[in-house]
């Protein structure tokens, strides 16, 4: 009997040990599974953080593109107004030239009529014995000395009046010819300006189409990124639900055994941070003065053909490329002509390998050397672009790299 009691006690103890070990094994298995779920969840959350950062960049890029499109729209509107104004001036000049041509034709007819009159008078003199005979008849037909003197004066005045009248007509015709030439020269300049404006508008329309294409591409990428984020969020929700279920099961297993050590589940969040590296140019001084003075216009200006040549334009941030560079160098006491073709000739030509901060760099856009900016180093330049207004642009790759032909001018 005593031996049976000992055996029963041993069985009870063994059963307790077996129960504890079973619970411990079950708990360990659940915890391992939970660790796997937590690892998967950490990976998804890391992917989700990266995807959200990429999405934020895409949203920012879309906003920047839309801002550029708005600026191009504004620049197109202003330059189209300039075209309309120029065409109106051309129409006025053409009308003025037409009126002058009519006036010249009238004067020529008057001259021809007066010349014909003189020719007929000369022919009459010749038929009647020449002008001397006719004049003598007029003079000797006088009734007295006073009448004779009066007739001499009258004949002389008539001849002189004819000559003076013809000379006056010829002077008037000459003056009209000169004025017509001036109008024609102005008309030619206006037509050249119209051609240049139309070329600029075509160039800006190409820029607009390019920005629209980029916006569509980035919008598609944004939609794909949002879809991927939604999928990651769904996966994360599933894993979190699975993790919660595992935690409940672990707690239930641990509750079944008083001897089971209580384990606390700790979850850690991985935070990622990105540091932005900044680079700076080599030179300071005068170039930095230009950059500092230009800060007020970066992101706060509009490209307008012919802009930057009046205080009103400068106050409102309305520049074209050469107008901006002329204004910028004016801030350090260097006078430049407000024209790209003239600025090419304004300083010393240097090779692209030798260019440094502050050099003028030229690009072939709608015409040879049609755009100019100020080189800042590290493949960047400062200028007034049709799509952005005053901004820093990259000339080491992409659009501006394709249009840079190595034309560099040093003006300081």
TrEMBL record:
Pfam families: CC_PcsB (PF24568), NLPC_P60 (PF00877). SUPFAM superfamilies: Cysteine proteinases, Tropomyosin. Residues 1-26 form the signal peptide. Residues 172-193 are annotated as: Disordered. One of its GO terms (molecular function) is cysteine-type peptidase activity. InterPro entries: NLP_P60_dom, Papain-like_cys_pep_sf, PcsB_CC, Peptidase_C40. GO terms for biological process: proteolysis. Residues 284-411 form the NlpC/P60 domain. Residues 20-128 form a coiled coil. Keywords: Coiled coil, Hydrolase, Protease, Signal, Thiol protease. Residues 177-186 have a biased composition (Basic and acidic residues). The keyword Protease applies. The keyword Transferase does not apply. Belongs to the peptidase C40 family. PANTHER family: MUREIN DD-ENDOPEPTIDASE MEPH-RELATED (PTHR47053:SF1). This is NLP/P60 protein.
């Amino acid at each position: 009997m005593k031996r049976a009691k000992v055996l029963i006690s041993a069985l009870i103890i063994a059963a307790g040990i077996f129960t504890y070990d079973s619970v411990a094994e079950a708990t360990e298995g659940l915890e391992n599974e939970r660790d796997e779920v937590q690892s998967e969840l950490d990976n998804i959350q890391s992917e989700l953080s990266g995807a959200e950062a990429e999405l934020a960049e895409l949203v920012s890029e879309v906003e920047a593109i839309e801002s550029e499109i708005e600026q191009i729209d504004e620049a197109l509107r202003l330059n189209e107004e300039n075209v309309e104004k120029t065409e109106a001036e051309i129409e006025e000049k053409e009308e003025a030239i037409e009126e002058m041509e009519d006036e010249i034709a009238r004067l020529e007819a008057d001259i021809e009529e007066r010349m014909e009159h003189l020719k007929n008078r000369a022919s009459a003199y010749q038929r009647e014995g020449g002008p001397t005979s006719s004049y003598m008849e007029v003079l000797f037909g006088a009734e007295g000395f006073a009448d004779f003197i009066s007739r001499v004066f009258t004949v002389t005045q008539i001849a002189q009046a004819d000559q003076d009248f013809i000379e006056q007509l010829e002077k008037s015709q000459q003056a009209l010819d000169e004025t017509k030439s001036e109008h024609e020269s102005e008309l030619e300049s206006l037509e050249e300006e119209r051609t240049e404006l139309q070329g600029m508008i075509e160039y800006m329309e190409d820029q607009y189409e390019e920005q629209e294409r980029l916006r569509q591409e980035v919008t598609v990428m944004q939609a794909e990124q949002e879809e991927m984020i939604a999928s990651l969020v769904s996966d994360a929700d599933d894993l979190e639900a699975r993790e919660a279920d595992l935690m409940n099961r672990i707690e239930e297993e641990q509750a079944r055994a008083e001897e089971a050590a209580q384990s606390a589940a700790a979850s850690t969040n991985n935070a990622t941070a990105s540091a932005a590296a900044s680079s700076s140019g080599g030179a300071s001084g005068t170039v930095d003065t230009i950059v500092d003075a230009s800060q007020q216009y970066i992101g706060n200006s509009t490209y307008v053909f012919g802009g930057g040549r009046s205080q009103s334009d400068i106050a409102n941030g309305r520049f074209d490329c050469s107008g901006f560079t002329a204004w910028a160098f004016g801030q350090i006491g260097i006078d430049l002509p407000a024209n790209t073709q003239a600025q090419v000739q304004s300083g010393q030509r240097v090779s692209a390998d030798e260019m440094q901060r502050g050099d003028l760099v030229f690009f072939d856009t709608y015409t040879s050397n049609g755009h100019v900016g100020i080189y800042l180093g590290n493949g960047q330049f400062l200028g007034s672009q049709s799509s952005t207004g005053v901004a820093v642009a990259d000339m080491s790759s992409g659009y501006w790299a394709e249009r840079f032909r190595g034309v560099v001018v040093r003006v300081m």
